[in-house]
């Protein structure tokens, strides 16, 4: 990860955007100690792939209230 102090960030902003465009994260340093206070990260690109079914299989538990009931026809019409 590249990091730039605020002053350098201003003068090299086009360069910073190129790093981000290429998928890198860029830290913004501030203060005497040059602490990272923020990051510029690339926006995730949408993919045309469909969402995987069953991605949470075995990771979550679903339970219904005892008084909950719905017929298959009602479920399919939702």
Automatic annotation (TrEMBL):
Protein's name in the database: Toxin-antitoxin system, antitoxin component, PHD family
Entries under InterPro entries matching the protein: YefM-like_sf
Entry similarity comment: Belongs to the phD/YefM antitoxin family.
Organism: Leptospira kobayashii
Origin organism lineage: Bacteria, Pseudomonadati, Spirochaetota, Spirochaetia, Leptospirales
